[in-house]
Amino acid sequence: MQRIDSEQELDAAITTNHLLVILLHTQSAVISARAHHEVAMSELDHAHIPYFELHTSKTRVDATANRSLIDALARHVGEHHDAPHVYVIKKGKLKWHAPHGGIRKEAIAAALR
Question: Is 8 exposed, middle or buried (0-12, 13-18, 19+ CB in 10 A)?
């Protein structure tokens, strides 16, 4: 997974990729670790599709930059979501998303079809 650290990187990822997966997560929550694992397993099965991650933890991203980056993601997908959350974006539009326990390798695979 490629890490997104700026609004410019987020915009570029969404505008230059026909289909992509973005994981919004923290480094400190157990449920985020499980979500990260599910998305990583999905990435192994779909290596031809770009996968990105956006961290909400203040230990990984400056708090001010973090808020603007999360706001930018919300503008792209149409609303704010709590971490962890996974998004499948196709042609710049939100195709599918899932929160917390809904983040499963199989569900992501179905959304990528």
Answer: exposed
Q: Which domains does the chain have, with CATH numbers?
A: 2-112 (3.40.30.10)
As a three-state string, the secondary structure of 20-85 is: EEEEEECCCCHHHHHHHHHHHHHHHHCCCCCEEEEECCCCCCCHHHHHHHHHHHHHHHCCCCCCCE
pTM of the model: 0.89
Per-residue pLDDT tens listing for the chain (113 residues): 999 989 999 999 999 999 999 999 887 778 888 999 999 999 999 999 999 999 776 554 444 457 788 899 999 999 888 889 999 999 999 999 999 999 999 999 999 99
Side-chain half-sphere exposure of 102, counting CA atoms within 13 A: 12
Query: What span, in angstroms and rounded, lies between the C-alpha atoms of 3 and 23?
Result: 10
Cβ atoms 39, 51 nearer than 8 A: yes
